[in-house]
Amino acid sequence: MIDGFLALYIFMLAAFTGYEIIARVPVILHTPLMSGSNFIHGIVLVGAMIALGHAQTPFEVGIGFIGVLLGAGNAAGGYVVTERMLEMFKASKPDAGKEAK
């Protein structure tokens, strides 16, 4: 019973600390942090696939499949967000009527 409370305490402390750290990140640093986050999500996805490959019972296979599904969605979503953020930094195209004279 104590182990459960300790795990809950660590989870709550990590969630609060993570929120406070991320909330104070300047906007200009979000893109580099997002790319680092995508790297970590890729590692999580590989770990989920390895766990699914070692699953033996139907319950383990189900949990492993959900882990792979969520990990893949998280990694793909991170890359989509990063691509959108990088689009914001690209120079806009000049108007067709206002090209160099």
Describe the structure.
- It is a single chain.
- With 101 residues, the chain is mainly alpha-helical.
- It has a domain of 64 residues.
- Helix content is 77%, strand content 0%.
- The chain contains 3 helices and no strands.
- Helix 2 packs antiparallel against helix 3.
- The chain is flat, with a radius of gyration of 21 Å.
- The chain starts with a helix and ends in a 12-residue tail after the last helix.
Brief digest:
With 101 residues, this protein is mostly helical.
Q: Give the number of DSSP strands.
A: 0
**Segments where pLDDT lies below 50 for 5+ residues?**
none
Helical stretch tally = 3
The chain-level structural class is mainly alpha
Comma- or semicolon-separated keywords:
single chain; about 100 residues; mainly alpha; 3 helices
Task: Write the SSE topology.
Layout lengths: L1 H22 L6 H24 L4 H32 L12
